[in-house]
């Protein structure tokens, strides 16, 4: 009897362990299913407004304020109206957005990359105090600086009217310059720089490299994923420039796309479907940028957080 009981004990233990593993797998499946259901609901809530905008832009007629899953009809006349520029100079707005995005992203990324280096790898009194004092400014909303930026822009003479070419350059600068000092970019790049081994920098200094050379040849290549991620964020921000551009630019032909599409809404009548078509076209470049830069975007933010 004792011998049989001894032989049955391992079998019982094995069955108990197998049951525990099975229960654990079932709990994990249930938890994963619940998580996917919640994420699915959140995804539907977030994506439906864009889907509704898209199907409404395809409708020739109908009630635009009604919730729907399919369009009442399909027509491309709203897109034709936007692209042909019958109401707004669409292609000029595209050019304006590209100029503003190129200048804005280049200046913002360069300034943040330069400013983050001494705050991460150079030692001087008050370094951390300066960094945390800059971070405190993140609690202020962007609207808090509108009046100050407006007065500064006027004092700099960026809205003067002298010649068409100089006026365009100054008005582009009026849109770009107030946003080139990015606290978020400074934080991300500083965190990325902190992940660079100090031994590389010390070795370069021993070899006689100057700080600017170290920044250009060591820090920038190693922080490239974070720089790409920050560039994508800034591209989206400048591409969607609306409020500041509407406030500052006296010439409507120099407005970026997001701000210029408001001209589709007239004083006495509004072609809401054309506005929807313009909104869809505006979003497309952002989707393309994220589709091609998603790998670098996630890797860059992950590196910044780890740093």
TrEMBL record:
<feature type="transmembrane region" description="Helical">
    <location>
        <begin position="129"/>
        <end position="151"/>
    </location>
</feature>
<feature type="transmembrane region" description="Helical">
    <location>
        <begin position="274"/>
        <end position="292"/>
    </location>
</feature>
<feature type="transmembrane region" description="Helical">
    <location>
        <begin position="93"/>
        <end position="117"/>
    </location>
</feature>
<keyword id="KW-0812">Transmembrane</keyword>
<feature type="transmembrane region" description="Helical">
    <location>
        <begin position="218"/>
        <end position="239"/>
    </location>
</feature>
<keyword id="KW-0813">Transport</keyword>
<dbReference type="GO" id="GO:0055085">
    <property type="term" value="P:transmembrane transport"/>
</dbReference>
<feature type="transmembrane region" description="Helical">
    <location>
        <begin position="171"/>
        <end position="189"/>
    </location>
</feature>
<dbReference type="InterPro" id="IPR035906">
    <property type="entry name" value="MetI-like_sf"/>
</dbReference>
<dbReference type="GO" id="GO:0005886">
    <property type="term" value="C:plasma membrane"/>
</dbReference>
<dbReference type="InterPro" id="IPR000515">
    <property type="entry name" value="MetI-like"/>
</dbReference>
<feature type="transmembrane region" description="Helical">
    <location>
        <begin position="33"/>
        <end position="51"/>
    </location>
</feature>
<keyword id="KW-1003">Cell membrane</keyword>
<feature type="domain" description="ABC transmembrane type-1">
    <location>
        <begin position="94"/>
        <end position="293"/>
    </location>
</feature>
<protein>
    <submittedName>
        <fullName>Binding-protein-dependent transport system inner membrane protein</fullName>
    </submittedName>
</protein>
<keyword id="KW-1133">Transmembrane helix</keyword>
<dbReference type="Pfam" id="PF00528">
    <property type="entry name" value="BPD_transp_1"/>
</dbReference>
<comment type="similarity">
    <text>Belongs to the binding-protein-dependent transport system permease family.</text>
</comment>
<keyword id="KW-0472">Membrane</keyword>
